[in-house]
C-alpha cells in the first residue's frame, strides 16, 4: 500500500494505492485562501496540517486494515509558496502563495541588479516565485526576516510535520529562483541577492529518493506503521505528469485547475525566459520540463458563475453549451487576467476585460465568453512552447477540475488544434504521481 498526499490551493487530496497500482480510496479536505490586501494571497500552514490530519482520520475510519500495510508516503503540492520558520521550526507568518502578486517591485530590482539571474535560474523573476516574496519580507517586515532560519515550500512543511526533516525535491525547488537548474543545486549567488544563505534552504533530493521516516507519534495517531519512508515527491505539475505516465520527451498535459498550465517534458534543460516560459527540473532524475502558466483558468469560470448569478459552474456550462454557432461567434471577448498573468505576458498588473457587450447579450453569452477566453489564454502559452521553444506536443492529456466538462474539453481541443486525452481519476493525478 502507498499513500499519495497532494496539497493543492483549494483542497488537500489523499490517495491510497494498492501494490497492483489500483486506487483503493481518495479523500479531499477543502482549504480557503486569505486576501488581506489587493494582490495578496495567503494561507496558514497550520491549516494544511489540520486538513491532512482530518483527511487521514477520515480514511482511517474506512480503510484501517489497508493503512496498517502502508509501505511509503509520497508528497505533491502547490509550488512557489513561502513558508517561513524560526530556529525552532515555528511558523513566522502566513505563507505567501504562488498567486501572490505583491512583489513586483522586488522582481524589477532583481532583474536590474542581477542580469545573470535568468541564466542561472532559467526563469524570469515573477511575483509568483519564492525569491521575490522573501525580498518583499526583507524590505517590509525586516524584524521578521531576521528571524527566518528555514524557508520551505508548502508540501515540505507537511514533510517536516511528518518526519522532522527539512527537505525538498528538485522540481519544487526549481520554482524558487534560488536553484541553479542546470547544475541542480542551490545557488549561493542567487540566495545572496535576497540576503539569504544556503543553510536556510532545505536539503535537495530526487522525487523518488527517501527524504525521511514517519514519526512514531504521527503513525500511532493515524494507525500507520512507524518509520515508513517518505519520498522526495514533486511540485504539483511534475507529479501530475508522473501520475498520468506522461514522462517521455514531448509528452505533456493541459491542466484546467485554479490556474491553467501547459506542461511538456524535455530531454534537456531548455530555458526560454524571454517568453515567460518556465524551465524546471523534473522530479525524475536528470529530466526537465517546460511550462506556460496562466493565473486564472477554472478559477475565472468559478468567478463568473458567482458574478453572473449561476447556481454553480455546472449550470454556467450548461447554459453556455446551449448557444448556437452564431451566438458563440457574436459573444463578447474575455481577457482572463483576474490575477495578473505569467506566460507569455509576465504582467502582474494585467486585468480582466469583457469587451464588445451589447443589449443582445445575456448571461449565457457572458458565460461562454469567459470559458472561451480561458481557452485563448492557454493558446497563448501553448504557442509559445510549441513555436518559440521548439517543443512539439501533438497530443496532450487534459486534467484538473475543468476536465470534467466534455464541452469545455472539446472547445479547448479545437482552440489548441491539438488532440486532448482525458483520464479516469485525473482530478487525483498529482496525488497518484506522488
Q: Could you walk me through the main structural features you see in this protein, from its secondary elements to its overall organization?
A:
This protein is an alpha/beta fold. It contains 16 helices and 23 strands. The strands form eight sheets. It has a six-stranded mixed beta sheet, sandwiched between helices. The protein has a five-stranded mixed beta sheet with strand order 3-2-1-5-15. A two-stranded antiparallel ribbon has the order 4-7. A hairpin with a 3-residue loop joins strand 16 (252-256) and strand 17. The longest helix has 26 residues, at 363-388. It is globular, with a radius of gyration of 21 Å. The two termini are 13 Å apart. Residues 387-391 have low confidence and may be disordered.
Architecture blueprint of SSEs:
Blueprint: E1 2-7, E2 11-17, E3 23-30, E4 42-43, H1 45-67, E5 72-77, E6 83-85, E7 95-96, H2 104-113, H3 117-121, H4 130-140, H5 142-145, E8 150-152, H6 154-163, E9 167-169, H7 170-173, E10 179-180, E11 185-186, H8 188-192, E12 203-205, E13 210-213, H9 216-222, E14 229-231, E15 234-235, H10 236-243, E16 252-256, E17 260-266, E18 278-281, E19 288-294, H11 298-307, H12 313-321, H13 325-329, E20 333-335, E21 353-355, H14 363-388, E22 395-399, H15 406-416, E23 419-422, H16 429-433
Parallel strand pairs: 1-5, 5-15, 9-12, 16-22, 22-23
Antiparallel strand pairs: 1-2, 2-3, 4-7, 6-8, 10-11, 13-14, 16-17, 17-19, 18-19, 20-21
